[in-house]
Predict the 3D structure of the following.
Amino acid sequence: MSDAPLFTALATSSRQLYSLLRCIAFNPQAVVSITPDGLRFTTEEVHAVQASTLLDKLLFSSYLLSDQDATIPPFRINIIALLETLQIFGISDSASSHKAPSGGITSSYAAAFHTPALGLGGTCKITYSRFGAPLCITIEENGVKTTCDMNTYNLPNMYDADENEIPLDRNALVMKIIMPAFSLHDAISELASTSSETLVVSASSIHAPYFALEGHGGPFGDSTVDFAPASTMDGLSTARRVQPAATETFSIAAPSGSGGRVKERYKFDLIKKAGRAMALASKVSFRMDRQGVLSLQFMVEQPEVTANATTAYGGPGGFSFIDYRFVPLVGEDNDDDHGDDEDETYQQDEEDEAIAE
């Protein structure tokens, strides 16, 4: 019988791992799934908000499973402790927050003289020897080696990651919008200044406001960020269709009853949990289904990964993805949150094509 560990991975830097995991660390407890495509981490809060990211195998110089056909049961770890371990040699906010104007991590001559930036030449090794064993993190840099054995916690035998995720019905989407992540980050930051309790997402391709985010219930009153329209999307019997200038893709397919407008309410404090992902990403994809479940999928540039590779998401390499899902508020003012118009159309897009188009 082989004594080889179930899983071993080696990364030449812990910076990319730290940056991605930090974006979903709003809850200390994270579920880890080891798959042939990479390490998936998922956090949630009262099943009202859920975040996940895949540390794609392309982020590692070596990624080995002792049995490619074996299924490794998921387990739970303390993601805060993991982040502390990954930054043991000084990764800090200053090192992980430098990004290009369009988003994504990039190098900076100013950051090159910071101690964290100088420490990117080390290695990070992750080992999982057997089910129930600790997750072993070994970080080595300039001849200094630090090893941390993190306790893992078994999940119920009947635990199913797919069944425990907040469901998004991709066959019944009423909204799909792709836009620069900094535009969303700026809008949420502006609305947060009024201490709003509720975020209202409103969109229509035929009636103004075409795309708006509204903050309601704050002590300083309500506020709205209205994304200005650009031009008509096409000229075939859709002259009224208008696309907001900030968006790259704008598709609204409201169900019958509200004159072509999609409108839904969410708890603002939950939306703010995605703030770090908004600041780090280059693009974001909004998707909302008929039940009001909202998916914000963030694309994060990874210049260290070859663009010729193919990620586990089916898109080009050089990118990682962070997915947030939110459950809508129910009750007052929701009677007309969804609507349909005979002119509205929807073309189904697979999750892998949400951003990497």
About this structure: The chain has two domains: 7-163, 168-353.
